[in-house]
Amino acid sequence: MIASAVAERAGEGVTIDLAPALLGSGYVHGYPSPITDLFHPTQAGYSTYAVAIKTAID
Amino acid sequence: MRRMLQAVPIGVIAVAAVFVTSVPASAAPLAGTPDTLTYVALGDSYAAGQGGGNYLNSCLQSPAGYPALLDAEPKIKLVSNLACSGATTADVIAQAQKVPRGTKLVTVTVGGNDLQVGAIAGACLLQADPAACVALIGQANYLLENDILLDSLLETYRAIAAAAPKAQIVVTLYPTLFPLSTSDPREAEINASTL
Fold it and tell me: Which of B14, B47, B101, B104 is the residue whose CA sits 20 to 30 A from B32?
């Protein structure tokens, strides 16, 4: 939501590209170190991130 | 995000980041063919790859993070990964000062730590401190409702553009944290609020 709001004002001196939404790319269960890594994506989630960014680049 | 903080306080976990550390950046020389996208990664834990494991440094940069994954692409060369867990927009503005001017691609994920979402998650979701939960959510809402975070993000993006005028700046959103098929209404609402 924040980035979307930024995009609405992107003409204010800066141009950005938004990576597509990252559907289901995070997962909060089953981390080997839940205290450290809780609420962050898994390795699979980051692969989805990379795909989203490549989409924005292309 | 605003709706998430007002209606479902625990939803702030969607942008949670925990650590406040930094790592010195190297002004790596740009290299590659003219078609190579010289690339610098900026941002917080989501940019560093926290959650991916096998951390390389105190910033919790992971080989599984998206900067490393993009670096494996034939046309992309990661010349500097400055992302660091815990980074706020102010930290990313400092990161931006280290971006080589000729960089062609910059990615950035930032904003969650400005809202102190790690602290909110601890206080609210883990129910560690209900009073702190309310206070932290109030602070986060203030930043959102008064466009203070938005202005900080814009300032961040401008700093990146100033440092690397020819770079494509790709801003990532934060991910949905739960399976889209979840039957847990709380998880579903958090997912919906993230999008």
Answer: B47
